[in-house]
Design brief:
Length: 143
């Protein structure tokens, strides 16, 4: 599983994995309950690999933000609930990404990132990605 195949669909909770392309869109499967959904051209869809978080100097890809959370949590699920207070969420996110732009990254965005991280963590996304990265690093060293 990679972020290029993981999407969020407007009006639908959670994350979805693209299963196959169709003439008019795609078929996606929920990472939460495994239900399938037809996503048409009229649907509001965001691909996680194309999402970035604003910082004071640049935009940081969501994959890097997830990696920072993973490192902070020592490979565990988020230690903070997305339902805690606004101040607690901002404090946590400031620890993860100290240079994030507080004017353009809203608390609702932080909540989504934490929820998405936990969903991906429950599907062992980060372990599979780290295994792929380690394999790629080993191949690079052999050359």
């Amino acid at each position: 599983m990679n972020l290029e195949k993981i999407i969020t669909v407007g009006g639908k909770p959670g994350l979805f994995e693209i299963i196959t392309q169709t003439r008019t869109g795609a078929i996606a499967q929920s990472l939460i309950d495994q239900k399938r959904l037809s996503v048409g051209a009229h649907s509001s869809v965001s691909i996680l690999s194309e999402i970035a978080i604003y910082t004071l100097s640049e935009e940081v890809p969501l994959k890097e933000v997830f990696q920072k959370i993973y490192d902070k949590e020592n490979g565990e699920k988020c230690s903070i609930s997305p339902k805690v207070s606004k101040d607690d969420l901002e404090e946590y996110f400031f620890e993860v990404l100290p240079e994030y732009d507080e004017d353009r990254v809203y608390v609702s965005d932080i909540k989504k990132i934490i929820k998405w991280y936990n969903i991906l963590h429950s599907k062992d996304y980060f372990k599979s990605v780290l295994a792929q990265d380690n394999t790629a690093d080993a191949t690079d060293e052999e050359e």
